[in-house]
Amino acid sequence: MTATTVSPPGASRRAGPTPSPAHDGLPAPLPGPRPTSGIPFARLVRVELRKMLDTRAGRWLLIGIGVVIAGALTILFVQDGGEHPFGDYLQATTMPMAVLLPVVGILAITSEWSQRTALVTFTLEARRVRVASAKVVAALLVGVCAVATSFVLATAAHAAAIAFRGATGDWTTPGTAFLGAGGYVLLGLLQGVGFGMLLRNTPAAVVAYFVLPTAWSVVGSLVSQVRTAAEWLDLNRTMEPLFTGSLTGEEWARLGTSVSLWVLLPLAAGMWWITRAEVK
Does residue 8 fall inside a structural domain? Predict the structure, then answer.
């Protein structure tokens, strides 16, 4: 005997839309149109910018950079009645950014792997080259904003020393000094991103970024056998002419060689490796 259940009057009208039946025991597909394009590259860049800046570590690093810059500008403002050329103020604003800002780029890469969010990232966007490229573009945007901010702060500090301390205005700074300051910040940031992609471990990447170039500079200045090579491969030494004046053809060649070794090579190798590394 089969039991029949009778629905009360009006029940069919009160019921919601009938879901699509499942196929072969699988859940029914969701209604609506399917996406026809991937995630826009601009959205990936915005996400990477948030990873660099909108985190606790990123915020504290930016606060630390601001404190160091404020302290350096205060010392110049007070010392010797503020009698310092504009180049000194520019150096006081760009050096802290050039030293500490690359750590933000390192953390933006290594946090994906240390906090195990790379699986989510590469699931939402399986084309890892686009993700890595978005990280590079985001780092460049942060670097450009940092350079512009350093120029504004240096100009304001020197103008304040002239107005409130009676200092003599000295704006005679060669154009290559601006190029050197900007390049120092941008190249350091890209170098940090490259080391982060290559090692994918925060302590290892930070130590490699600070220790390897410094050790090479020390060895190149002390060991006569590698002194000639250091003139071509020491990034700190090859960038010095940018801050002092115009560069000759040989100095440009030395700068390009050192940039290729310490910036382009880690960045290219890191992007190649991050597209093939196992995600756990």
Answer: no
Torsion of the alpha carbons at 127, 131, 132 and 134, rounded to the nearest 10: 140
31 within some domain: no
Q: How far apart are CA 19 and CA 170, in angstroms?
A: 76
> What pLDDT score was predicted for residue 12?
46
DSSP 8-state class, residue 225: G
Mean pLDDT over all residues of the chain? 81
Confirm if 128 and 276 have CB atoms less than 8 A apart: no
Q: Copy the structure tokens of residue 226.
A: 């590698």
Reported as a pLDDT band with limits 50, 70 and 90, residue 11 is very low
Q: 23 forms bridges with which residues in the sheet? A: 26
105 is a domain residue: yes
Q: Per the domain annotation, does 19 fall within a domain? A: no
Name the one residue in this structure whose structure tokens are 């910036």. 263
**Cβ partners under 8 Å of residue 100, min gap 6:** 61, 64, 65, 68
| Domain span holding position 96 | 40-274
Q: CA separation (Å) from 4 to 110, 162, 213?
A: 63, 96, 83
Query: For residues 234 and 220, is the Cβ–Cβ distance under 8 A?
Result: yes
Structural domains in the chain (count):
1
